[in-house]
Amino acid sequence: MSLRFGDIAPDFEQESSVGRIKFHDWLGASWGVLFSHPADFTPVYTTELGLTAKLADVFEKRNVKTIALSVDSAESHKEWIKDINETQAASVGFPILADGDRKVAELYDMIHPNANETLTVRSLFVTDPKKVRLIITYPASTGRNFDEVLRVIDSLQLTDNHLVATLGN
Predict the structure, then answer these.
(1) What single DSSP character describes residue 52?
(2) What pairs with residue 125 in β-bridges?
(3) What's the rounded Cα separation, in Å, for the pair 49 and 67?
(4) Of 2, 11, 74, 124, which cross-links 24 as Cys (Cβ 3.0–4.6 Å)?
(5) Beta strand 96-98 pairing with 64-70
(6) Taking phi first (over 0 means left), then psi (-120 to 50 degrees means alpha), and beta for anything else, what does residue 137 get?
(7) Which CATH superfamily is domain 13-161 in?
């Protein structure tokens, strides 16, 4: 069964580049962006994680924590972070989940048999401290638009407090 807007974001406990993470505890009272990547050390994903690191202050201003996921190991993630920091002039400070058992990918319906039965698709979830608020799924060949992600976060946070609708670009 797939996730829908308003569902409680599934909790999990998983190894990561910064140690074991229990998602709901890690998230606390913050919003979250959980986004998946099929594999470490690939060019598009490397640039995306570099950009996410560069946007750390922008996410923090919105009370949003970022967390990435790949099916590779935590040790691989640590090496990849070094590569990202060097090649993207970034400083990755967010965790990358090591989802080799695909537990999180299955909880969040990130594996799509029509795309590839063994790899996560490029899914992105925005959660408030409890619920799923946005789901975007891209094919593996297409990079994400973080300006759009930030625009939607701003809209969701604004409309939580004001009875308005927001425009797209």
Answers:
(1) H
(2) 34, 135
(3) 10
(4) 11
(5) parallel
(6) beta
(7) Glutaredoxin (3.40.30.10)
> Whats the size of the chain, residue-wise?
169
Domain ranges for the chain = 13-161
CB contact set of 167 (below 8 Å; sequence gap of 6+): none
Higher pLDDT, 21 or 42: 21
Amino acid letter, residue 166: T
Name the amino acid, one letter, at 44.
Answer: V
Looking at residue 165, its pLDDT comes to 82
Contact in structure between 39 and 72 (CB atoms under 8 Å): yes
CA 110 to chain centre: 11
pLDDT band for position 163 (50/70/90)? confident
pLDDT digits (tens, 9 = 90+) for 47-69: 999 999 999 999 999 999 999 99
Tell me if 90 sits within 8 A of 61, measured CB to CB: no
pTM over 0.85: yes
